[in-house]
Amino acid sequence: MRKIIYPGSFDPPTNGHVDLILRASKIFDFVIVAILNNPNKNALFSLEERIEMLQEIIKKNNLKNKVEIDNFNGLLVDYLKLKKCNLVLRGLRVMSDFEYEFQMILTNRKMFPEIETIYLMPDIKWIYLSSSLIKEIASFGGDISEFVPKEIIPLVRRKFNNTKK
Q1: What are the beta bridge partners of residue 7?
Q2: Helix 15-27 crosses helix 47-60 at what angle (to 10 degrees)?
Q3: Which of 24, 38, 55, 102 is surrounded by the most beta carbons within 10 Å?
Q4: 1.20.120.1810, 2.60.40.10, 3.40.50.620, 3.30.70.100: CATH of 3-126
Q5: In the annotation, is 164 catalytic?
Q6: HSE of 28 in the Cβ direction (CA atoms, 13 Å)?
Q7: Annotated catalytic residue 41
Q8: Where are the domains of the chain?
Q9: Marked catalytic residue, from 9, 25, 50, 131
């Protein structure tokens, strides 16, 4: 079975994340979406909320048998070894992503030489999109409906105590 792990903070999940999950589920037999529980990051959503959001997305897209939502603490390489998997999925949007990812893959390879990273670019309509951008738009009451799955919109609005679009 070909399985791959797609790690990230998913705070909140965007349409770009969903695009990569859907595409990976067509390429691989099994995808583990692994939410990093990083206490050093100031996440908008709790780990439990991010798990629920991603589970709803998986259910809505009928991917229950192809995609699992999980979480981990610590180093990605340790999580990969725990899951007996050496394939990692990462999204690349812009050049700054490449520079960061290049540094990460070389470091991860030093710690776990068997690691292989597959990079996918999101659909062109999501290439500019990030969770940080969604949070900034929402914090000012902006319309995020084109950027995140519709199930997530009320959850993001609630975090900012705003009921606008």
Answers
A1: 34
A2: 60
A3: 24
A4: 3.40.50.620
A5: no
A6: 24
A7: yes
A8: 3-126
A9: 131
